[in-house]
């Protein structure tokens, strides 16, 4: 098969390696210049949390160990209160962690591996149009403005949240469903440099400053810096619009994030020059056109970043497509099965991600939420076959997202009753509570 891939971001680059493993001819067209070219100024350091689904996608092409070398383990959340106190909440059992990885370094490594595997990557090529019946895609060179086209047996659209491939399905096919929803919050990136050559804060944690309606987070980088992201409303009393100059921004940080600000010597410059970006959820269907075009990754299911699952879900797309390609079914059947399997999962992870924003910015600071997590962790330790906390299902397992979402709602119903028990704070680890959970599990059996 001769395959075209539109977009050599994280998912497109990994997919290229998988397709080469199947022996297909692979040509990748990427709108941006080659980020490995050192004459192009390096962008800001942006990092992502990689968890088990992402690592599984990489392991399928033998790259998990290589990628682990550029990751920093984060064993839990480090919560920063407004008074500057910190408390640590483990993500799972001892030994379970998520990984902070630089988006740029990961993408470069995947492109190198795709080329080593025999894929061709063409840069500065912006997809403009697809002839869906012929799987011919058309590009404009972003430097020379020259027009080119690529003929293939099939096209994979991995061109991200604002996919041009998806737009072709929208404008050229009948009954294409499409919905996009922007969050009222945007985000701005800031940084915390090392102090005396060392990390300025605990390195093996994802730091969160939860403040109710908004939050600041920080993830470690291997150069001992932290990339911080402020998720904050666009409009309103406390909003990007309200912090319209450096004085108001500084005063706000001094009031709300004083310990973080003290570690940000470049705050003024970064606040003024780093953009405020928006966050979107995209749902659409169908994700394919016969055997000629298939959307994967953000092009099919862009989600907000609060569960750290966008890339992980996209890499899991590659794992599942690889399994289906091994089935021997026709390509059209493979695409149909892929969409049938992945669409409910894409929808579920979108909901989980939106829900986790409220958890991160608000609930993690609530002692009752922390207690609930402790009760769930204890019950899981004693009865692992009966209970796996939602975070662990999403992050440390390959339970399909839609099943995890359904189980999570079932668990919520049970935990609401458990948390309503009089005196739960003092008897949370008692036999009485354990037996009550058993009885509720029986009563609300799935
Ligand atoms: P992209 O990475 O966006 O790649 C798309 C590629 O297509 C790009 O290279 C682009 O240049 C190219 N392209 C676009 N248009 C065209 C065109 N017309 N022609 C040719 N090429 C084109 N996910 C996690 O798993 N963990 C996290 O912690 C996490 N944190 C995040 C934090 C933020 C602030 C954001 C915004 C996202 C986060 N994500 C996270 C989500 C993750 O970034 C995406 O899910 C992931 O990048 C999707 O990969 P992709 O390859 O589908 O799309």
Chart the SSEs and their pairings:
Blueprint: E1 2-6, H1 10-21, E2 25-29, E3 47-50, H2 52-59, H3 64-68, E4 71-74, E5 76-80, E6 86-90, E7 98-102, H4 103-116, E8 120-122, E9 125-131, E10 136-141, E11 147-151, E12 154-157, H5 164-172, E13 177-192, E14 206-210, E15 215-220, E16 226-233, H6 246-256, H7 258-261, H8 267-273, E17 277-285, E18 288-289, E19 293-295, H9 298-301, H10 310-325, H11 331-361, H12 367-382, H13 390-396, H14 401-419, H15 424-427, H16 431-443
Parallel strand pairs: 1-2, 1-12, 2-8, 5-14, 12-19
Antiparallel strand pairs: 3-7, 4-7, 5-6, 9-10, 10-11, 13-16, 13-17, 14-15, 15-16, 18-19
Helix pairs in contact: 1-4, 1-10, 2-10, 10-11, 11-14
Bound molecules: flavin-adenine dinucleotide.
Which features characterize this protein?
single chain, 446 residues, alpha/beta, 7-stranded mixed β-sheet, 6-stranded mixed β-sheet, globular, binds flavin-adenine dinucleotide
Give the count of helical stretches.
Answer: 16
CA-CA gap between termini: 44 Å
Biggest sheet, open or closed, and with what strands and sense? 7 strands, mixed
Shape: globular
The value of Rg in angstroms is 23 Å
- What small molecules does this complex bind? flavin-adenine dinucleotide
Average pLDDT across residues? 96
Q: What share of the residues does DSSP label as strand, in percent?
A: 15-25%
Number of DSSP strand runs: 19
The low-confidence parts are none
- Please list the strands of the largest sheet in the order they lie side by side: 6-5-14-15-16-13-17
Q: Helicity range of the residues?
A: 40-55%
Give the oligomeric state. single chain
| Alpha-beta content class | alpha/beta
């Amino acid at each position: 098969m001769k395959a075209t891939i539109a977009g050599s971001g994280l998912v497109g680059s990994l997919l290229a390696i998988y397709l080469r493993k199947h022996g297909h001819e692979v040509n990748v067209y990427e709108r941006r210049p080659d980020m490995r070219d050192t004459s192009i100024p390096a962008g800001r350091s942006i990092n992502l949390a990689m968890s088990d689904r992402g690592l599984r996608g990489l392991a399928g092409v033998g790259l998990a160990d290589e990628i682990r070398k550029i990751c920093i383990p984060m064993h839990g959340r480090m919560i920063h209160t407004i008074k500057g106190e910190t408390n640590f909440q483990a993500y799972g059992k001892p030994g379970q962690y998520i990984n902070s990885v630089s988006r740029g370094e990961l993408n470069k490594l995947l492109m190198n591996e795709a080329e080593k595997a025999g894929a061709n990557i063409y840069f500065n090529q912006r997809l403009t149009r697809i002839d869906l019946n012929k799987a011919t895609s058309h590009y404009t060179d972003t430097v020379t403005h020259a027009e080119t086209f690529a003929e293939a047996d099939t096209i994979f659209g991995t061109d991200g949240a604002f996919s041009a491939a998806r737009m072709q399905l929208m404008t050229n096919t009948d009954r294409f469903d499409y919905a996009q929803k922007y969050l009222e919050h945007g985000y701005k990136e800031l940084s915390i440099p090392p102090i005396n050559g060392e990390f300025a804060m605990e390195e093996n944690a994802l730091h969160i400053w939860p403040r109710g309606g908004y939050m600041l987070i920080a993830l470690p980088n291997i150069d001992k810096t932290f990339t911080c992201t402020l998720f904050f409303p666009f409009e309103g009393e406390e909003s990007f619009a309200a912090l319209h100059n450096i004085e108001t921004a500084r005063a706000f940080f001094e009031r709300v994030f004083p310990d973080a600000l003290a570690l940000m010597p470049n705050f003024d410059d970064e606040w003024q020059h780093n953009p405020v970006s928006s966050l979107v959820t995209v749902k659409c269907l169908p994700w394919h056109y016969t055997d000629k075009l298939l959307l994967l990754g953000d092009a099919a299911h862009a989600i907000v970043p609060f569960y750290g699952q966008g890339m992980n879900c996209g890499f899991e797309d590659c794992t599942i497509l690889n399994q289906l390609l091994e089935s021997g079914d026709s390509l059209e059947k493979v695409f149909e099965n892929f969409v049938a399997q992945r669409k409910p999962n894409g929808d579920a992870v979108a909901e989980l991600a939106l829900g986790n924003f409220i958890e991160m910015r608000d609930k993690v600071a609530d002692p009752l939420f922390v207690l609930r997590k402790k009760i769930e962790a204890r019950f899981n330790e004693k009865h692992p076959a009966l209970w796996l906390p939602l975070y662990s299902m999403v992050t440390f397992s390959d339970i399909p997202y839609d099943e995890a979402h359904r189980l999570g709602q079932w668990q919520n119903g049970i935990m609401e009753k458990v948390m309503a028990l009089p005196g739960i704070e003092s008897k949370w680890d008692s036999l009485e509570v354990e037996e009550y959970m058993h009885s509720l599990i029986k009563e609300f059996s799935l």
